[in-house]
Amino acid sequence: MRLELKATPEEVMRAVEALQALGQEHQIPEKALFALSLALEESASNIVSYALRADPGRTFSVSFECAGGIATIELRDDGPPFDPTQAPAPEGPASDDRPPGGWGIQLVRRYMDEILYRRESGENVLRLTKRIPSRAIEQ
Amino acid sequence: MPLEIQIHKSLGPKDAGAVTVKLSGSLDTATAPELERQLAPVLAGPVRDLVYDLAGLKFISSAGLRVFAAARKQLKERGGQASFVNMQPQIQEVFEIIKALPGVAIFKDIAELDRYLAARQRAHQQNP
């Protein structure tokens, strides 16, 4: 499934809802689906706010795939090159004095098994993957 | 998923001045600004204690945590605090990963919060 989205928060959540519908269809367990939803929300929000400067005239794309016990989300935008995997992790717990800029990527790292970034044909391509425990294993 | 926000000012003697904010649905990049808007007039008032009831909250992202953190900072400056009750496990996990809100009180349910507020009230009466 592939979605073309405008650079707005509402469109980010439209993608999250589409992912959730697809996840239910594929019987992805609730906990894993929460993790995927959160990683998508944070990654897409970063694209909207920073790469595309919240300009609703610009678009980015999200595609989902679920096969062989692996769920994959791929995000593409034509903003300036930015590799979130190289963003420094915040040091220590958050405090009132430290701006909370790195929380999103921290959550993505924690909930996903793999985050791959590449720059391809003038686009940032971010690929997030998570192994999905099968129902049989869960029970 | 939308976010439902119910703000309730407590008039009981036990927790006078406390405001309960009940959130249901999804606190995310699209809905967090609305919570921020609705909290602004509350925080502009004399409130010291804010209780977030998250029983119906199904999803939260860093956008939501930022609203909580900003409100907490304002309360702290006036000697108040924010408490959280009825947090679902997946929401609590996000809080734990980020450690975004050092010093906030998290309670299992309203009964546990009530016991805490009553104890604090007694301590306050003894040492005003």
Distance between the termini of chain A: 29 Å
Order of helices and strands of chain B: EEHEHEHEH
Mean pLDDT of chain B comes to 87
CATH class of chain A: Alpha Beta
How much beta of chain B, percentage-wise?
A: 25-35%
Number of helices of chain B: 4
The count of helical stretches of chain A stands at 4
**Strand neighbour order, sheet with most strands of chain A:** 1-2-3-5-4
Number of domains of chain A: 1
- Count the beta strands of chain B: 5
Compute the average pLDDT of chain A. Answer: 89
How would you describe the oligomerization state of the chains in this entry?
heterodimer
Radius of gyration of chain A: 15 Å
Query: In order across it, which strands form the biggest sheet of chain B?
Result: 1-2-3-4-5
Instruction: Give the overall shape of chain A, derived from the CA principal axes.
Output: globular
Globular, elongated, flat, extended or rod-shaped: what is the shape of chain B? Answer: globular
Output the structural class of chain A.
alpha+beta
In words, what does this structure look like?
The complex is a heterodimer of chains A (139) and B (128). Chain A is α+β, with helices and mostly antiparallel strands and 139 residues long. Chain A has a single domain (2-136), classed as Heat Shock Protein 90 (2-Layer Sandwich), CATH 3.30.565. Chain A is built from four helices and five strands, in the order βααββαββα. Chain A has helices at residues 9-25, 30-51, 103-111, 135-138, and strands at 2-6, 59-67, 70-77, 114-120, 123-131. Chain A starts with a strand and ends with a helix. With 128 residues, chain B is an alpha/beta fold. Chain B is 44% helix and 29% strand. Chain B has four helices and five strands; from the N terminus they run E-E-H-E-H-E-H-E-H. Chain B has helices at 32-44, 62-77, 89-98, 110-126, and strands at residues 3-9, 18-27, 49-60, 81-85, 105-107. Chain B has a five-stranded mixed β-sheet. In chain B, helix 1 (32-44) packs parallel to helix 2. Chain B is globular. The mean pLDDT of chain B is 87. The chains are: A alpha+beta (139), B alpha/beta (128). Chains A and B meet through helix 1, helix 2 and helix 3 of A and helix 2 and helix 3 of B.
